[in-house]
Automatic annotation (TrEMBL):
GO terms for cellular component: cytosol. GO terms for molecular function: ATP binding; glutamate-tRNA ligase activity. Pfam families: tRNA-synt_1c (PF00749). Residues 10-263 form the Glutamyl/glutaminyl-tRNA synthetase class Ib catalytic domain. This is tRNA glutamyl-Q(34) synthetase GluQRS. GO terms for biological process: glutamyl-tRNA aminoacylation. Its EC number is 6.1.1.-. Belongs to the class-I aminoacyl-tRNA synthetase family. InterPro entries: aa-tRNA-synth_I_CS, Glu/Gln-tRNA-synth, Glu/Gln-tRNA-synth_Ib_cat-dom, GluQ/Sye, Rossmann-like_a/b/a_fold. The keyword ATP-binding applies. Keywords: Aminoacyl-tRNA synthetase, ATP-binding, Ligase, Metal-binding, Nucleotide-binding, Protein biosynthesis, Zinc.
Amino acid sequence: MTDHARPIFRFAPSPNGLLHLGHARSALLNAAMARAQGGRLLLRIEDIDPSRCRPEFEAAIEEDLAWLGLDWERPVRRQSEHLDDHARALKRLAAMGLVYESFETRAEIRRAVETRPGWPRDPDGAPLFPFARDAMSAAERDRRRAAGEPFALRLDMARAVGRAGPLTWHETGQAAPVAADPLAWGDVVIARKEVPTSYHLAVVVDDALQGVTHVVRGEDLKAATSVHRLLQHLLKLPEPLYTHHALLLDAEGRKLSKSIGSRSLRALREVGLSPADVRCMAGVSLE
Ligand code: GLU
């Protein structure tokens, strides 16, 4: 197979902590599927949030993945080095009239939601943005901008969906396309003043620029695919094939995460487990 025709997979962790078994499962599934399909495997470091990402975690990611027996192509793409690519995409969305500045603070948003019992939440459980695009007067916006107040750039979801029309994506193992429901997310933040991109924007731009054909990631990101398909459509980017795998749960049935102190791969290694033991615990064989 020429390099051009080979499927491209990627594992895309954020360096904001040590990898745990759930990450191992995603990385190993990407590697196993790439191997089975004669594909290529990329590693992308999703480090757009400078307040949470640290170089030592990035080094630990590479060390843990190599210890697990994985190999990936170099150079590794670090999202923070490609903010210009994201800014270009943002400009295109803005030129379509789909992006607006939102100066509302977290506290203002919280108060607005508190006064509206039953206010809808997005698939991650966060309340939808409770203000209309033009809720703040132009004069007030000018005043806050002039005062140097931070703002978020939000996607005008209703307008974006109106422009795109109905969208679907293709999920491995499902014969029928999955209907995307980006409206369920409301006016998502697409960039910030201080970080001129967002998870949603960076992931679709980078997947396209890296020629990713297969996105394999946890089920917790399945709902976000609706936003990704919308952005891909608006930006005329190709549509990858998606696989959202079941998450590993702890003994209490909670998804593994740094925030509940799930044991890191490093900790498993330090108590004497071998890479083969960890691959087995992650439920993916590389043979
Ligand atoms: N960086 C994201 C995370 O660590 C994953 C992004 C993706 O696979 O689309 O949760």
